[in-house]
Amino acid sequence: MKILLIGKGAREHALAWKLSQSPKVWHVYVVPGNGGTSRLDNVSNLDCVRADDYAGLVTLAKVLGVGLVVAGPDDAVVDGIEGYFRHSGILCFAPTKEAAEIEGSKAYSKGLMSKYGIPTAAYQSFTSYDEAQRYLDQVDTRVVIKADGLAAGKGVILPTNKTEAHEALHDIMVDKKFGEAGSSVIIEEFMEGDEISVLTFCDGKTFKSLPPGQDHKRIFDGNLGPNTGGMGVYAPLSFVTPEQMAQVDWAIIRPTLDAMRAEGRTFTGMLFTGVMLTSQGPKVIEYNARFGDPETQTMMMLLAPECDLVDILCACCTGSLDQISIPVLPGFACNVVIAAGGYPESYSKGDIVTIGQCPDGVQVFHAGTEESRDGTLRTAGGRVLSVASYGSSIEEAIGSAYRAVGCIKFDDMFFRTDIASRVLRRSPG
């Protein structure tokens, strides 16, 4: 089989790395890919078609003889890439455009949860800045403000007081900090608890989740500073019990998929659910309709060598997920994101990146990198690299990752030093 993978981040590098290990795969083509995907065996970057030229991608896939298309980024999924491939004879791992609205519009997803009794934070949605202002003046509890549309994972602001809340609202709706994604906003109650990420394979009938992970959204140690696309993830989570995961399944995942089916938007592909473990039980923070980033980098390290990702993705596309097992290694995995100085705001590009000899069991997945004709690796994005590792213990996994971070150099590189500190503090000794 030949595979066409859409995207250019560390998520796509991790997917290409795992997909290329399948004995069923002859070659993986990545559009447009990055400086890391270009260095993998049996993987090639292509720039002859833009990643958002979906009709062109169908033509390209036919010319190449592709058997499976995997959509990585949120915009490809929300734009409805699946619909372009639906009658092409080529499998496409992505939900329909209608189902992907669960990510494309927070107002839609909150309305769905409200209609079907899926636990989430109390909220109000607004398209009028003046009405949103008046509502903020009335509420006397801490709130979260979210841009309705896609904002590269940065469209959620957690103000600590009313002044900050008004500033955030003005930034989103008036200054258009996130463009048209902020034409509508959600103002919801702030939830207390542990936030976890649940990645679930779905074929429209059956669903199977990977072990829960925990992302570190804020830019600075101690969960301070503005939200980012994610600065590091570890999994599984020792503080999450099997009973809690069972509750997530029957109170959130199953009702969500049932609701989508009832709405005529049957969901197939990858459902990413951000969950807050509150004192009242698990509640939904948000949905994504594709693989998470940086969650995917950690999850690919957890999949057992005999786990064939191609089989899983094809089963989701063909309604046969019930016939597939997803073997996972018994230990722990994590990844540490290395960003360009200034991210998530303005940052420089074009700085030379050097990667030394990393410890065994570590994979350096590229996010914002480009390889020049002479082989020089340079920065090309805010999140530059994702250093992922596996270990028999969380201490081993996180230690290996940070030792590998020490082997990487570029000007003004920045990373959090406290990934997984939530569980490391509880570890004996």
Automatic annotation (TrEMBL):
<dbReference type="InterPro" id="IPR011054">
    <property type="entry name" value="Rudment_hybrid_motif"/>
</dbReference>
<protein>
    <recommendedName>
        <fullName>phosphoribosylamine--glycine ligase</fullName>
        <ecNumber>6.3.4.13</ecNumber>
    </recommendedName>
</protein>
<dbReference type="Pfam" id="PF01071">
    <property type="entry name" value="GARS_A"/>
</dbReference>
<dbReference type="GO" id="GO:0006189">
    <property type="term" value="P:'de novo' IMP biosynthetic process"/>
</dbReference>
<keyword id="KW-0658">Purine biosynthesis</keyword>
<keyword id="KW-0464">Manganese</keyword>
<dbReference type="InterPro" id="IPR016185">
    <property type="entry name" value="PreATP-grasp_dom_sf"/>
</dbReference>
<keyword id="KW-0547">Nucleotide-binding</keyword>
<keyword id="KW-0067">ATP-binding</keyword>
<dbReference type="GO" id="GO:0004641">
    <property type="term" value="F:phosphoribosylformylglycinamidine cyclo-ligase activity"/>
</dbReference>
<dbReference type="InterPro" id="IPR000115">
    <property type="entry name" value="PRibGlycinamide_synth"/>
</dbReference>
<dbReference type="InterPro" id="IPR037123">
    <property type="entry name" value="PRibGlycinamide_synth_C_sf"/>
</dbReference>
<dbReference type="InterPro" id="IPR020561">
    <property type="entry name" value="PRibGlycinamid_synth_ATP-grasp"/>
</dbReference>
<dbReference type="InterPro" id="IPR020559">
    <property type="entry name" value="PRibGlycinamide_synth_CS"/>
</dbReference>
<keyword id="KW-0436">Ligase</keyword>
<dbReference type="GO" id="GO:0009113">
    <property type="term" value="P:purine nucleobase biosynthetic process"/>
</dbReference>
<dbReference type="Pfam" id="PF02844">
    <property type="entry name" value="GARS_N"/>
</dbReference>
<dbReference type="GO" id="GO:0004637">
    <property type="term" value="F:phosphoribosylamine-glycine ligase activity"/>
</dbReference>
<dbReference type="GO" id="GO:0005524">
    <property type="term" value="F:ATP binding"/>
</dbReference>
<dbReference type="InterPro" id="IPR020562">
    <property type="entry name" value="PRibGlycinamide_synth_N"/>
</dbReference>
<comment type="pathway">
    <text>Purine metabolism; IMP biosynthesis via de novo pathway; N(1)-(5-phospho-D-ribosyl)glycinamide from 5-phospho-alpha-D-ribose 1-diphosphate: step 2/2.</text>
</comment>
<dbReference type="InterPro" id="IPR011761">
    <property type="entry name" value="ATP-grasp"/>
</dbReference>
<dbReference type="Pfam" id="PF02843">
    <property type="entry name" value="GARS_C"/>
</dbReference>
<dbReference type="InterPro" id="IPR013815">
    <property type="entry name" value="ATP_grasp_subdomain_1"/>
</dbReference>
<keyword id="KW-0479">Metal-binding</keyword>
<feature type="domain" description="ATP-grasp">
    <location>
        <begin position="110"/>
        <end position="318"/>
    </location>
</feature>
<dbReference type="GO" id="GO:0046872">
    <property type="term" value="F:metal ion binding"/>
</dbReference>
<comment type="similarity">
    <text>Belongs to the GARS family.</text>
</comment>
<dbReference type="InterPro" id="IPR020560">
    <property type="entry name" value="PRibGlycinamide_synth_C-dom"/>
</dbReference>
